[in-house]
Amino acid sequence: MTMRVIGMMSGTSADGIDVALVHIAGSPPHISAEFEAHLHVRFAPRVRSAILRIANGAPTTAAEISQLNFLLGEEFARAAIKACKKWRASLSRIDLIGSHGQTIYHQGARSEFIGAHGIASTLQIGEPGVIADRTGVTTIADFRTADIAAGGQGAPLVPFVDYLLYRHAEAGRAALNIGGIANVTAIPAGARAEDVFAFDTGPGNMIVDALVEITTSGRAHFDEDARIAFTGRTIPRLLERLMRDPYLRRRLPKTAGREQFGTDYAGRLLAVGKKLRGRPADVIRTATVFTSLSIADAFQRFVVPRARIDELIVAGGGAQNPLIMAQLAAALPTMKIVPAEEFGVPPGAKEAFAFAVLAYEAYHGRTNSLPSATGARHAAILGKLLRPSPPQHS
How high is the pLDDT of residue 227? Predict the structure, then answer.
């Protein structure tokens, strides 16, 4: 039976919620997932500011996190309702919602915590109980915790869907998503699930977005069409320093986030750029080039030695940045770069689409993770299910 599933995602840029409507039927390896519609719903500035402040590690309280969790639950519910109205799709005909929520903390690597060894954790907020109640649709959320419990890093999760979408008997493919963080899924020709590997390459748009916000005093949130970067020049000494970042050499599996490349990182970058007599536009251009070269470096270190890649399928906001894409094409000349929309899913909808598929699999009680991507001891069923309360009759 075909299900109509809504997937929702708010990424590390916290600019808003992507909502995707997907028709899904069957089961792996013969699953059919057909994209139908996409809507991006922006957060109000005050909401985005609160998310970024907490996600960047500012002092907070349990009360504030709890309140923001429920507020974002309302935001996600409104986004789903708004999308259905725009698409003229009745909520009563939606079978399932998969909501990733908003990450405010993610530490996939294990470390000591108050005397305990080997603690990793993750926190996505956007209360799914609120989403289920407001929409009346069964909702699955909190996808990352089961993988961490199984010894994985809780990321990346989209490779499960990349494998279903892009595997090919003869062509080696890599799916690259350039969001706040850039991540890649390598799918060798004729791959089985256990042959797939994936990881975060490092920064995507995160550093550049933060630099733009700082240098424009919040008037702009990203460098549209790389217009600022194109007015600057690359600062060689700064770029060399960036390319020595220890994360780039860290062995797989690995994940990255604001803990490594957030606002503090961008502020330090501006300070170093100033000492090197660089203008803000020069620092932004250098950070943009760093994004591309760090991705290419990850391919040369970790992908090319293990798999022949013929096609590079690119999605995410960074796919709209012409400087990033030109640098990637120059650095990876043997790979054909293919926009994700050629496979039927717009770049901005890719992750929301993926969480619709992950929710569908969890709903059917099937494992929906790739331990080869996350480093977990075993596959797990990712996602917790919340059913709406039955209607009350007077």
Answer: 97
